[in-house]
Amino acid sequence: DGNIYVHHSLLPRTDKLFIDSSVFFARARPVTNSVSVLSPADMVLHSAVHMFRNGDWAHALRDLSDQHALLREFSRDQAFWEELLLVAESLNLTKTCFYCLRYTQKYFLTPVPPEIASRVARWRPAAPILNMFDRLVSHAVCPRYNDRSSGLRSLSLALLSCFPAPRVGAWLTPLFWTKRLR
Fold first, then answer.
1. What tens digit of pLDDT does each residue of 64-87 get?
2. Which of 137, 177, 128 lies closest to 159 in space, CA to CA?
3. Helix, strand or coil for residue 177?
């Protein structure tokens, strides 16, 4: 019939969280009569989900740069920030949104309005989880080098890919390690 239909699940079946893709299509904005694009908030969260929930760290620095560019572009509209927070809350992607804003600010100095930053700070994970995640991300976003840092980078990428953000907290439980050390 001349139409292209893209069927896409944002999260893998193994993820505890289910997001109905139809909500993205319902908020999509038409570009032409036959083409629509995701809403600005959905574009940002889509990119962040692939990185922080799905463990797609192969191009970590580039992906963070993309998120930074999206945030800068869409933040020209004051309503964007409210939309981003509302969508993150409605889809239970608050931690994902937190990580996206944290690391784009850290590595690209992405401007986030102070009132938005203080609201997002409520979504912060426990300090031990955040400290561990900060260290892993700092190695994962480093460019490849042929020195000692490449070993840390490889280990961080492997851990972040196998155990993305939602599962990092599990590393701190004795049961997690008891099962793996047997």
1. 999 999 999 999 998 999 999 999
2. 137
3. helix
